[in-house]
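Recap from last week: sequence in, structure out.
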Amino acid sequence: MLVRGPLSGPDERLSRALVRAVPDSVTERLADFGNVPVAVPVLVLAMAYAVRRSRRWVPALTAGLSMALVPAVIVPLKAWTARPGPLEPWAAGYYPSGHTATAAVAYTAAALLVRPYARRKWPVPLALALAALTAAGLVLRGWHWPLDVLASACLSFLLVLPVARAVSRSTRRSSG
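Predicted structure tokens:
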């Protein structure tokens, strides 16, 4: 088990200070942004919109592949680390957070796909806010340790990079 290390003590202390600091009814709704039935349809709609507007499939397919890689990356890491949860020490598989990764990849990839067609630069900040609210809800509710969501955010950044590159290439081609 890879659950003990120099950051585990501070992580656990921070979690104890934060858990249930906000009513469960609020934090559960925030955590729900990371549910597949909520996040993935947002990405699918953005994929369809981007293909319709640009007539280019590569950025949308890259976004879909990035989303498909979330469970392929997260599930083995959960099994390998077998970290127990803050409120369920008998259960394992909390590190890294799948809900955080789902929210971060789905919303950020969707934002990157629609950003070239937005009049303002709101899509990416909105996506980052939704991912951050999901992570906060998971930690404040006690469903994840702070490092669980931080690790997922870092992994999500790596999964979304190809989407950003594909969108950038597609945008340069269409404007050039």
